[in-house]
Amino acid sequence: MFLVGYSSLSELRPLRLDSVAAIGGLLLALAMLPLQLFVSQVYLDTVPFVLAIACGLYLVALYQQDRETTMPRLPTSVSMALPSVVLVGLGGLIVLTSLQGERTPVFFGLAGVLATLILVQILFTSSRDFNQRLLLAQIVLFALVFRFTALYATPGYIGIDIWTHMGFVDSIHAQESLSAISHDKHYASPFYHLLVVASSLLLDVPLRLALYLSVGVVMPLSVLLVYATTNLLVSARWAVLATALFAFAGHVANWGMHLIPTSLGLVFFLGVLYALIRVMRIEYTIRDFSLLLLSSVAVILTHQVSTFIMLVLLLAAFVAQVVFVVGPFGITRLDTSVFRAKKPVNLIGLVVFNFGMTIFVWSLTPYRDQSFLATVLSYFRQTLEESAGFLNIASGGSSGAEAGAEAAAPTLLEQLVPYIDVLGFLFLLGATFVGCLYVVHRRRAEQSVFTLLLAAAIMLVFVLVLPMFGIRNFIPTRWFAFLYAPMAILGAIGLRTFARNLSPGIVVTCLVLFALIYPGAMFLAAESNTENPVFSEQHEQLAYSEAELAAVDSIGELTGSPDGDNIRPDQQLHTDHPYQTVFSRTGAYPSTTTATVPDGGSADHDYVVYRTEQSTDATYFGTADGPGRIEQVSQDRLCSPDQATVYTNGEVTMCTPSPAS
């Protein structure tokens, strides 16, 4: 062992903030283990082990001999051949999607192999053969192919909210005025909708194509902002690695396919992050600070949730400023060979401006018969009074399979799917923990990296901790893609720490495992394949076939698309979730909800819509008592024999009360 001959760690090297933090992380991981006895939750089951492994490996790296690790490098011939292999493979992904008409498990398997080859080039190419431009081109092309093959193979749109937003876009385009959405909260944050309309007019293309050519193209290109941000902190190799980690992340890919204001908000958030780190790392000019200010205003005018996440980032930057002004860190203690000493940037004016503008805009934003700000505060207060409590974990979208499996013993696959969904996140989280430990050392601490550390920590509280207390008002699933930006940067710093300090055998093992598992795990996660889930019996499909979309239009014409106020409660249309959302969000039949199907029984609704998807793959239904569940339902359980069939196209059937009854 590397500690042979030493009676204590302090004899080998005095305890420092990073070593104390690593030991504290081990103790925290140990303290979290008993929580698994009270509730079964995928993050409670896994995060303690990830934290313990990260802290343990960091301590090993910290107390090994001070020497630069000699990493094995790829031969020049292999380094030159791999980019061509990746490009040919990307062409294969396009051909495969064209031939099969959808992205299949074979597609995701090949995509995982190609992403691994990109990571191998980043990690193991020699300095002489390393070409960051070529690698960035591969990453961007991969992101474009991975997302646009899904958009190409999907007849309509991918996701749920997109139908509402494109309805708003269509109204603005038709009326040539923003007043078309004056009743909605996006009236005060219309940048996304105006961008799509403007793109349609300028390019003279339909609105759907305009969406793909504007927001759809910008999303993959925005990963370059992660490179620009990381390159302000570390060398090009690790900046390219951070870019790849972010581009391959499941939630990031999701917002590149489910193109809604969250997508554009993420782009502007990356702009804020880049500008913020830039003013902290260089002798900035008014142009740099203006970029930061304009990016933050763009977020406010694009999306409310993105705005709140941006405010968290700015608050983290302000706290980092305070820490370096009055806290235990000082610029005289900085290791200039790691980070250049620089006086902390005063951000109080920027923070006050953004908080003030956000409150002003939200106070004028209409939402649920009052302002958006008043409604959000009311909901939050109601949550604290009625449902908040320790370990009050509610089912999220990813746990629907668990709810559906309660009636019967879950299969091995049903037990493994929740862990497969979060495996990529856990790998990145482990690298992030290591990066956080590295930057808390007094000699390496600096306002920019502390901003990343605090932002990641606060955002993890919102996505992992608050839901365990029953507080989900902040829509935690929307935060992951934003969280991945600081995580990717800190994760790259963490892997860089391993590459420099661990012994070659451990380094190669860690990096190879990361390169092999991380991309594939991210691509198998539900967020990367919502239009055609890899685990189709555990996850709902958030896209529809041409027959299913044609049925929505036909049923709308058949019923006359009545106004919701003119529909009696017994005339409400019932079908599975998410299919029911298309009827209501497109206006085909405004009064639509999820059908209730008792366990082992049949639905008791007058107006129902059945589709073959309900019998073959995962669809969500309500239950008489308690939460709903994912289940496969046969047609006779939804449309009873005494009902009349008023519409069918082979895939979709609408049943109503029979005139004879």
Automatic annotation (TrEMBL):
Signal peptide: none annotated. Keywords: Membrane, Transmembrane, Transmembrane helix. It comes from the Archaea. The chain crosses the membrane at residues 20-40, 46-64, 76-99, 105-124, 136-158, 209-228, 235-253, 259-277, 284-302, 308-332, 344-364, 419-440, 452-475, 481-499, 506-526. The keyword Transport does not apply. This is Glycosyltransferase RgtA/B/C/D-like domain-containing protein. The keyword Lipid biosynthesis does not apply.
